[in-house]
Specification:
392 residues; alpha/beta; 43% helix; disordered C terminus; two-stranded antiparallel sheet
Amino acid sequence: MASTVGTTRKSRAHTGGGGGSSGTGGGDDAWRAKIDVHHHFTAPQWVDWAEREGVVRREELLWWARWDVDSTLALMDRVGIATAVLNPTMQDRYRSAAQAREGLSVVFEALTDLMHEHPGRFAFLCPALLDHPEVTSWALRRALDELGAVGVSVKASYNGVYLGDPSYDRFLAEVDERSGVLVTHPLDLPGKPPGVPTVPGIPNFMCDFLLDTTRAAVNMIRTGTLDRYPRLGVVLPHAGGFLPQIATRLEAFGDFCTPPLDTARVREALRRFHYDTAGPLPPACTLVETAGADRILFGTDWPAASAEIITDFTVPAVEADPAFTEHQRRGIYRDNAQRLMPALKRAEYTGPQGKGKDGQRASRERADALPRPAASGTSAADPAVRPGPVDA
């Protein structure tokens, strides 16, 4: 029976639903209403601007930076994603604060246009540029307070300094005062040239990214970050890296940290993080036991993860996992994200053509209510290209 269920659910990942029930009370509608909280976005308009500025070379861009709306919507419809939360990539390559602000203006304009053109299909995260604190403060005001961003994206570490370090306090306080959601993402481990495998033959995203996330999470636990910023929601990608697997180890050996961690503090912290399914999700029994199914969010890692990875592994990993009840699966697909990011409810997707004319009109009206940023100019191009790590 389990094999049959798994096969049926895998086939639904390929066909975009149909013939099955997923989510109590919602049936197939729940399966088709997924919110993808782990979706990388490189605005084509930003690539045009960045190439003029000498920030990137178009011909050197890797696959995950070649985002286009048609293939994205096709993938979303194929696997039942109603709304994708876009995380802008390559935002750590600016050479000055002025260039960073200009580049972000291009990104925000592209995002706003996209949401107007496709009501309800997209939401977005505000990138944090911690090399430029004043620009980050401006970006938070612009994105969260004016444009309706549903959260803030931030790397697990900057220049070898991990989240939880006191140097992040100003930034975290600004997000906390808005009851904001911090969506973290790993990269290469500190101390190595960007993009160079730590172990020859093993891409860094295979193992090192998971360790980068785990280090950030443990450091936030160690420094009491979630206690100091109680209104802050934190999403750990790729099911929290290795954190669920080392939870017992962290409880047992917390005394060796500085300051020491007691078991109760560790257990409480593990249940305050949120975890996405991008990766794809490993067997979830440990994660459910560690954090609870209500802390798990659906994520694909598109386009860093191909359509085939998403349909053959990512979606079936959630669909067929016996650790989840149907009610929990519905929460993972949609309800948990809406509870964490209330702004998502302001732009509900009403279906491929809307639920009739009234639904389509209401969706368009919500999009038209979004403010549009003023068009940004461009500065003189600089042929120098700053090498930077892959931000995928």
